[in-house]
Design a protein that fits this description.
Layout lengths: L8 H12 L24 E2 L2 H4 L1 H4 L5 E3 L20 E3 L4 E3 L4 E2 L3 H10 E8 L7 E5 L4 E5 L4 E2 L7 E5 L3 E2 L5 E3 L1 E7 L3 E2 L12 E2 L2 E4 L8 E4 L16
Amino acid sequence: MNTAVLRSAKAGAILTTLGLSVGLMAGVAEARPPRTHQCISPIFFGGSEQWRDLNQRYDVRERIIGPPAPATDDIPDPPGGPGCRTALAGERWVRAVPPWLTATETERTAFLTNFKSARYVIDAGTAKERSITVGPEVLQSGTVPGDVLPPETRDLPYVVPVSPVFHPLRPGTHTSTLFVTMDERVCTGRGPAPGLSADCLEAGESEYPIIDNGPFIVLPGHYQPAPDTTAMGER
């Protein structure tokens, strides 16, 4: 089916505090993600439960990490805060980004046709940096429901890369940066989608234009994932 500025000064303060002090993480109860995986859409609000819950929308069983939503008067903070930016130690996780919304099916088809690969760089610029490249199999597409906010996005086609499942990370602050490679230049035909800073992707590799691609937090914990024999490598 289907990768944002901070929703408010309060949300910004919370994320800044978490990023500065790993030692305080365990004591911030409101920042601790539930052990049941449910990421409420940080970009859109409303629609069916399946649309609001990114785990359901993308058929993802693992923890979803994504950026906060844009600050607008129309969209209230979803339950649990402005974005899915925390995980527990021992959890495998999936990277979600704001979807690429297009004006018509023609622009969506152009994206699908020209998309070559997605490269996820984890902890860029550190000694633990690693890169995972995947192909068009990570793309999901659909149509925005007619009852979501913001209203100007209703009924628009979208396409979005949803990452493979990544291995657990150590407690602390981490980053995840997405680069996409296109055969030719593609545009949305309608301006940037919510959470994105550009409406065109150039030919070749470029960073997916997320407005706020700040760090996320892995909290100390004792998460025990269920055995899964279907996992694919770093997927």
